Amino acid sequence: MRYRNTALVCRGTGCVAGGDTVYEALRQEAERQRLTDVLIDFTGCHGYCQEGPIVAIEPDGILYTRVEPKHATEIVSSLMSDGKPVEHLLYHDPATSQAIPRYSDINFYKKQDRVILHNCGHINPERIDDYLASGGYQSARKALFQMRPEQVIEEIRRSGLRGRGGAGFPTAIKWDLCRKATGSPKYVICNADEGDPGAFMDGSILEADPHAVLEGLTIAAYAIGASEGYVYVRAEYPLAVSRLRTALRQSQERGFLGSQILGSDFSFTIHLKEGAGAFVCGEETALMMSIEGQRGMPHPRPPFPAQLGLHAKPTNINNVKTLASVPLIIGRGADWYAGIGTEKSKGTALFCLTGKVTNCGLVEVPMGTPLSKLVMDIGGGIPHGKHLKAVQTGGPSGGCIPARFMDVPVDYESLAKLGSIMGSGGMVVMDEDTCMVEIARYFVDFTQSESCGKCTPCRLGTKRMLEILTRITQGKGTEGDIELLTELAQEVKDTALCGLGQTAPNPVLTTIDYFRDEYDAHIKEKRCPAAACDALVHFSIIAKKCPGCGMCVKACPSQAITSMGKKQPVVLDDAKCMKCRTCYDVCKMGAVKIE
Amino acid sequence: MSTEIDLSLLDPVLEGHHGHKDALITMLQEVQEIYGYLPEAVLARLSDETGISLSRIYAVVTFYAQFHTTPRGRRIVRVCRGTACHVQGGNTIFQLVKQLLGIEEGQTSPDLEYTLETVACIGACALAPNVVVNGVTYSHVNAGKLSELFTRKDRR
């Protein structure tokens, strides 16, 4: 039957956090009110995670934000009467307080260019018919029946597609190398081991549009001449794993995977491999070791996977976003794709905008878009009237770009020039309360604990860097520490075996470059300008401002604050204080001083 | 911990991957799903039946963060240490959880109620800071929400 409307409940990781309850509530309510001409359905990530849980009413394009199960009655009633949307659930423009009913009118969506994400938030990822109805598997059909493998590679070459895992290596060259390599069978692998903390693009695509990735992998396999494929997905993404499983089963049932696909003479199967919690497995040679059931340790290249890969056979590895772009390029043509972006960086870039920014979420813009447009226009700027300090791209492998470079176009070359990298798409915004030395320490702490230990520069270098950074943040830094750190960082960068070690110094080098004054303040004045380093921060009560209301006494998790009776200022015990800022946040009088 | 371990629970895993030595990680994941952790006796049997040496099995078990060789609590608490959580005060949250549960990272409370772990990123960055308890994500956590979540009244 045809439905008048569809209510699409976002069931991406962000929106189901705290309990996947909205979808069921809406279904039950629709049944109770006998709403029959509106379909209650669900999608993967709609993108605007900040305002989740999200419900979209299609085809009108109405967006409900921060929906709770208790709102189901109102939403269904509004759909019943075909009347006005539920006003208080609409997005309200923070500047004008005006309700904006349609998501296409909201800045967060309006200023984006959703290409890879075109299906995300619009189709049910657990139903292959939805994907087919939006043109799915047409590109695989076109490649298999109208193009020779060489033509597919040529089309990808003309499109200018570069690897979206971060390094930006031209995809067509990679495919061509593997195609020409001798050895059989050949393998293709989708790298979905998205390990960068602060990044969830690949997971979101797998949750929202898994068939696009499978179709891309199938086209890659056809172009290369591979008969077997793997999707290696991070175990911390249970939802992505389960949706992929469903998608794999459905595409096998429909003949899009398996032997003699769609009646052609091309056969291809895909296996799903779950990672087991090792960041280094995002590195391609380590990933292959892991698929073989071994410790995920990288080995030197050459030989490249295209020559000697999985089970010592020619292997091609691409990132989720790269593969999700492939069906679009084959379907719409290389010229269309090459028309988006800059001269050297084609297509769109996908980012997870998070941190100290008003609109967190999944965003997609053409390559070359200025960073300021991402942070200010789409991201809505910095909340609470604070100021932008830096934007971190590329996760633990990337760097911090200071606010003064906010006009930099976001593409591979421009970000590299600033010492950062495009990376796989994490973008963490930092304000004046973020200490840049502490952030460098945080990232090195991460890479140090994730270092596999195989090569000395990474195993020992990251450890020593962490020690130096830790003592600086504790106020124990000494003259010469910055120079030592720089030398060490450069050494690790030049000599480490794999990408993890080679890029681990980037957060250190960029923060020293752009925020040396903060390092100096920690070392020379034993002061943290952002008041973020615990050892250098002191909490006290301004007696004059404290009315003794006791809010902080109740809120303090470590019982460090004692009430001295009504209208008497409270007393804070330094020894018990955990510096958690809870008192600072609850005090309405501004009587808690942080210095 | 003196309870007998039923080694026969391993049979379906062994059958499902018969002859596939490269499925070691998948097998270990399935074994851990059954027992909650990877008991020594089970790994020894896995080694005997598959022909994969026990040292290689341990090499893999100790390499990956997901595998555990000691019993774990009924409630697995995982504090997200991703960048977005970090800049939103994730470290303080971590300190608070440690204090509330009375255990350090990687430890299990003596009554086997809680195990405390950290996770690099769960991908719900927009809702930072996040804490996951038995697979359910609690978002925008603060001192108040945490003490509500971990009041020890439900503990024996």
Describe it:
The complex is a heterodimer of chains A (595) and B (156). Chain A is an alpha/beta fold. Chain A contains 24 helices and 19 strands. In chain A, α2 (22-32) packs across α3 (72-81), α7 (149-159) runs antiparallel to α8 and α17 runs antiparallel to α18 (456-473). With 156 residues, chain B is an alpha+beta fold. Chain B has helices at residues 11-16, 24-35, 40-50, 54-63, 83-87, 90-101, 143-149, and strands at residues 75-80, 114-119, 131-133, 136-138. Chain B starts with 10 loop residues before the first helix and ends in a 7-residue tail after the last helix. Chain B has two domains: 7-63, no CATH class; 75-151, Glutaredoxin. The interface between A and B is large, with 65 and 50 residues.
Write the layout of secondary structure elements.
The complex is a heterodimer of chains A (595) and B (156).
Chain A lengths: L4 E6 L2 H4 L5 H11 L5 E6 L11 E4 L3 E3 L7 H10 L9 E2 L6 E2 L6 H4 L17 H6 L4 H9 L2 H11 L11 H10 L6 E6 L8 H8 L1 H15 L3 E6 L4 H16 L15 E6 L9 H8 L23 E5 H13 L1 H5 L9 E8 L5 E6 L4 H8 L9 E6 L5 E4 L9 H6 L8 E6 L4 H15 L5 H18 L7 H15 L3 H5 L2 H9 L1 H9 L14 E3 L9 H5 L5 E2 L8 E2 L9 H5 L5 E3 L1
Parallel strand pairs in A: 1-2, 7-8, 7-10, 8-9, 11-15
Antiparallel strand pairs in A: 1-3, 3-4, 5-6, 11-12, 13-14, 13-15, 16-19, 17-18
Helix pairs in contact in A: 2-3, 6-10, 6-13, 7-8, 7-10, 9-11, 10-13, 17-18, 17-21, 18-19, 19-21
Chain B lengths: L10 H6 L7 H12 L4 H11 L3 H10 L11 E6 L2 H5 L2 H12 L12 E6 L11 E3 L2 E3 L4 H7 L7
